[in-house]
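so my prof wants the structure for this chain in the tokens format not the other one, which i didnt know existed until like an hour ago. anyway here's the sequence
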Amino acid sequence: MSISKEKFKEMLKEKGLKVTNQRLLVLEVLADHRDRHMTAEDIYDLVKEDYPEIGLATIYRTVQLLLEMQLVDRINLDDGCVRYEIGEFFDGEERHHHHHHLICKTCGKVLPFKDDLLDELERHIEDATGFHVLDHELKFYGQCKECLERQNSTEKHVEV
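here's what i got, hopefully its the right format
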């Protein structure tokens, strides 16, 4: 796990939340699976391994609470499922932007893209309009490297 259980406890307490096993387990599962964009059911399946008596409704309530407290982010990847990921953490009062998503239209793979190249645009927006951007979400649709290579390989075989 990339973040210690103690850090999670501290974050919950800072937000005025009780530290419960359910909350810790949901945060731990999301931290341990940063590369996946998990549904509540995905989280439930993994939490249930360590805490079999937990119910799916508890996962939904916990995720909603953590979302409201900005400890997790909700993502819509246009696949009909609401997904969650552990939020980016705070430096003082300023929130870091979270990563963007590259979505393959062929296989559905979702890749995170961490470079935030929109800082200059945000400054321009604020200078031009007085609107202060707090956060943004960006999705790029295309083909992943593997699907592109597979397509190019298939096209070469067809030409021959």
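also thought this was worth mentioning. The first helix runs from residue 5 to 14.
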